[in-house]
Amino acid sequence: QPSAEKKIRRQWKSFNIDRSVSAPGQISDINQASKIGGESPCDSPILEDFFSNSNLKVNGESYGKVIPVLKSQLAEQGDCQSQLDLSRDLLIQVASDDLNEDEKLELEERAMYWLLRAGEQGSEEAVEILTGMAATGRGVTDQNYVDVVNITSVPKNTTRANFIAKKLFKKLSKGNTFLTSLQLSRLVNENTKIPTQPIKNAKCSQDDLIENCCEYMEGDLPSLDQSLHAITAESGIRDVFFSGFFTLSCILAFYIHQVVTSQIQVSSSSLLPIMVLAVTLRTREVKKKEQRYKVWTNIFSLFSEYLSIHHQETCFSSKQCVSPFLIFHCLLLLHPLVYPDLVFKTSLSLIVVLIVGSAASISVLHKPSSSFLLFMISNILVTWQADQLAALLAPHVPAPYCSADTVLLMWQVGYFVPAVLLKCGREMQAELQTFFWEDLTLRIILMGRAASYTPIFIGSLGLCSLCCMAIKYKSSRTSLILCLVMLLSVLTVTRPVKPATVSQLSWSDYQTSCLADKLTAGEQATCHHFTGLTVQWSGVVDRVRILQRRNHVEWMVDNLPEVVRRRTDLKCLLGDQFGSCESKTSQAAKLLCKTRTQQELEEEQKCHLERFSEYQYQVLLAMPGPLFGKGRTVELVVGDELRHTVLAIKTGQTVRTVGKLVSGVGREEVQINVRDISLDLLQ
User: Fold this and answer.
1) Mean pLDDT of the chain
2) How many C-beta neighbours within 10 Å does residue 589 have?
3) Per the confidence metrics, is the pTM higher than 0.85?
4) Rounded CA gap, 74 and 592, in Å?
5) Weakest mean pLDDT among 248-262, 271-285, 286-300, 510-524
6) Which residues neighbour 82 within 8 Å (Cβ) at sequence distance 6 or greater?
7) 449 — alpha (psi -120 to 50), left (phi > 0) or beta?
8) CA triplet 532, 538, 539: central angle to 5 degrees?
9) How far is CA 193 from CA 174, 233, 450, in A?
10) Burial letters for 235-260: b for 16+ Cβ neighbours within 10 Å, e otherwise?
């Protein structure tokens, strides 16, 4: 028995090579086991043959030989637990002191063989044991090192996919080099009819099946699913009638009818629900794909007891729901930003859209939890009595924060924020979508309007959940980034920063109250609160100077090696050359031009990168003083966007500035961060 087992081990090259090449006659029951591809021990012909042996005597001596022989035969047949037990027994024998080194090496090699076969089936315990043995060089030989390296370095899912696919192919191919999609479908439904029309990819080889099994283990729908679905799918008039395309076409036809009949105001209020409905109908495809993925789960689970069905289905569902729900949440966020004041008016088309959208969102739910159902029912009551609840809270909550919208927002936050942390991503996305449709329906029917913050809240929370799913499952990350960039761009364009209102604080009042020589500590602290106010003051220019200069391109070019700068002439390539000296007016400009245009200078020294420069200027204004006192100076900090205005200002001119005041407490000068500056023509 050990010598025959050793021959089989050495002929088993790798798990990408079929082990059925073992020569006949090595172990009596190997061929019988290989016929059925490793069926369960309860249906094993070895067990039937073993227990039907009339010559077997269960006495004190022979009974101890029954279990090892039976275990060995079950292990050869493919029983993973028997393979693990055999490897443990062999390693226990290695620990005996009665064996010499050659015998121990032989036992370790045999144990490694059974561990490799168990690990190939996906046994984590077997992989862990053989990894530890391989780290110390135990049981690794010139014949099995390829298998050891492969099974310890290849991802666990890939190893398991190879085993399942080969086991499946061996069972169905019946000696052929291919199997058909019809054979696969018969594993799920024995009554599948033979197709009468050509089907694409109806045949697949063992390598194709391994690739498809790997796709399944990675949480993707196998590429053979199209041919399998074409055989198993049963379509009829009902499927066409309830399809998303037919439903949306009918609603769009009614919407176009409204536009044609000049009901513009009514049709505009229906535009957002129609767009959201189109996306909601698209999310129904996720559930259909989940059902098709479960078909493959049922097929592969027949050939592996280590297949984590829940993990695989959760991974697939999360990957599939990222893209459609990403569009859904982006639409919810974009519409309030573009049309913040849109008012929904009840119409027949809007009611139809609400009914269809609510039904479609409910169909996307997999198995709604009892907590979500309770929340949805309670939400109807809370929305109905929102005004009364706000009135009850009015004595305890400040007036600006006590309203029906605030009550509903806190109600939503109280449920969904913990739910995002506790529930899986796919379930959470479906619940957010269903809640949006219920909330929109209730508000239009009961309150006659839709709240602008509800889509923003649902969209923001949904995007956060999608970000976590995209990172965890490495799915649609590029699309997610593009959507976030688009949202930020729209937010920047549609929500420009409104200029701050100019306060009534005059220079004379501020000087009298906050710039006196003898201010108490309390008065100084009070004056500090004027910081941040937008003021408009006028004064005489005392001095203009550059406060700061930034040129990042110039800094990067100057830090390059001198050899690179000279050979590439980057300054001249990116910048400009010093021009003609005749157009210069100031003495400094003429001197610079004359110096920089000398013929003997290198080309790099004749160019500049001034176009990339940014400046921050300081303009000192002499402000009028009190009747019996000295005047004060105000420091203006001006950005580069007002460069041309600052360059045109001359000493002695009266200018008017608008900007944010920075308190001058503890300083001799008052500072203003300038937003606008111009010549005061009234002076």
Assistant:
1) 77
2) 13
3) no
4) 94
5) 248-262
6) 41, 71, 72, 74, 75
7) beta
8) 115
9) 20, 11, 52
10) eeeeeeeeebeebbeebeebbeebee
- The predicted pLDDT at position 510 comes to 86
From residue 590, give the alpha-carbon distance in Å to each of 531, 579, 599.
44, 10, 16
* Residue 549 dihedral angles phi and psi, to the nearest 5°: -130, 130
Residue 211 has what DSSP assignment? H
Pick the closest to residue 420 from 457, 460, 461, 453 (CA basis).
461
pLDDT digit string, tens, across residues 201-215:
788 888 888 888 988
CB atoms inside a 10 Å sphere around CB 333 = 22
Single-letter amino acid, residue 39: E
Average the pLDDT over each of 219-233, 286-300, 367-381 and give the range with the smallest value. 219-233
Helical (H) or strand (E) element with 203: strand 203-204
Q: Specify the amino acid at residue 73.
A: Q
CB 301 within 8 A of CB 307: yes
User: Hey, is 625 helix, strand or coil?
Assistant: coil
The percentage of residues in the chain with a pLDDT greater than 70, rounded to a whole number, is 79
Query: If you search the block for the tokens 């169909």, which residue do you land on?
Result: 363
* Residue 383 backbone zone (phi > 0: left; psi -120 to 50: alpha; other: beta): alpha
Contact 636, 659 (CB under 8 A): yes
pLDDT tens per residue, range 168-178 = 888 888 888 88
Q: Apex CA 198: angle with CA 196 and CA 199, to 5°?
A: 110
Q: Which residues contact 70 (CB under 8 A, 6 or more apart)?
A: 47, 50
Q: In sequence order, which residues have a C-beta less than 8 Å from that of residue 457 and are 6 or more positions away?
A: 409, 412, 413
Residue 612 burial (CB count, 10 A):
16
d(CA 7, CA 26) in angstroms, rounded, equals 8
Buried b (16+ CB within 10 A) or exposed e, 645-658: bbeebeeeeebbbb
